[in-house]
Amino acid sequence: MLDELFTLVLEHLAMVAMATLTATLCGVSGGILLTRRAGWRPALLGFAGVMQTVPSLALFGFLIPLCGIGRGTAVVALVLYALLPVMRNTLAGILSVDAAVRESALAMGMSEWQILREVELPLAARTILAGVRVATVTTIGTATIAAAIGAGGLGVFIFRGIASVDTGQILLGAVPAAAMALIADAILGWFERRWATPAPTRT
Amino acid sequence: MTPVVEFHEVSFRAGGCEILRRLSFEIHAGETLALLGRSGSGKTTALRMVNALVTPTSGEVRVEGRATTAWPPRELRRRIGYVIQETGLFPHFTVRANIGLVPRLAGWDPARIEARSRELLQALELRPDDFLDRYPAQLSGGQQQRVGVARALAADPDLLLFDEPFGKLDPVTRAEAQRQFLRVTRALGKTALFVTHDLREALLVADRIGLMHEGVLAWIGPAGDFLGAEHAEARRFRQSLDPADA
Fold this sequence. Notes:
The complex is a heterodimer.
Chain A: H1 2-36, H2 41-53, H3 56-67, H4 71-95, H5 99-107, H6 112-142, H7 155-163, H8 167-196
Helix pairs in contact in A: 1-4, 1-6, 2-4, 3-4, 4-6, 5-6, 6-8, 7-8
Chain B: E1 5-14, E2 17-27, E3 32-37, H1 43-50, E4 58-63, E5 66-67, H2 73-78, E6 80-84, H3 95-99, H4 101-105, H5 110-123, H6 128-131, H7 141-153, E7 159-163, H8 171-188, E8 191-196, H9 199-205, E9 208-213, E10 216-222, H10 232-241
Parallel strand pairs in B: 3-8, 3-9, 6-7, 7-8
Antiparallel strand pairs in B: 1-2, 1-4, 4-5, 9-10
């Protein structure tokens, strides 16, 4: 039992890590792109928004004909879910950078790339991290459903518990998942405060 | 000698509005030209054309004899100091990093940047040891503005652009800032374009005044002659000095 718990926790972690890392990469790049291409905002944000409204079980189901069953499909679905908060927060964070700051960066001869790296991303970091935190916490929860399409993870206990009307089994899946979400929330929250605190209060 | 800045028949339209109409003037080496005008008279748009933040719809702006459109934009901008009312200091950079930015982009070595930053702070009456490690939010408005000036001067540009730099300061701090401006530009022989809506400020800082009115250069001449200028808008600005005299 303990062995199985350990294996499933690891599976769950691997799935969540892959999904949130991919969603962060795609979401941040997408968000940056949207700051430069205002015309694409309705389409991309709309797409990510619609993805979030599809019930997760249905989304897993829809993907089976496209990607088959198993971990890969589950990760694709989780990425689609996690995309919106990251992309939206990246866009909001960069757009909230003071126009005068951006303009003086340009007027001092910084390139678009330098402005992004040295000015916009650092100033938006806190908002972006907040989006990543939301994405991670929801992904940990949603990933339990992935067991329904054979992706493993803590959902295995939950589905087995439901099938055999065994509350103990359900809790064995649910409690570690909840704990994982709380821990992830705490760790990312700590980073958010430490890394992305606006500089003045640091001294 | 080629003027440092030349506006040649410069017009600018945006959204169906004519913002500047056939603007022509020159700024010569070592002089300060104030563009005076009300809000919306087009003076800021004109200033932003000098460092290619705005491109003329027609006509040409030349810097050191070369059209702004022919300069590589970043090279042009790094040669020009830029100070705006909102300062635009990077909130996540210390004073040291803010001032050192342009020299760093230009590839100066750190020791030289440090020495230059200290020298500039000293010239602007901010003690380097007290200020270099602070963040902009830890400075008063006047101190932020002085750091903004130091940043603009950091890489020693010959040409400086000032857009209402002291507009948000209280009158006493403002007078100090104007005095420092004069000392710095005169002593260093800088060429400056200074945009303001305050005639008193224009008279104080400028060698020549250009009066902007509804997108047109209504009058231009030595600052001392402005008090005798015939244009109606010039008269209105003079009345603003002493409302009781109207």
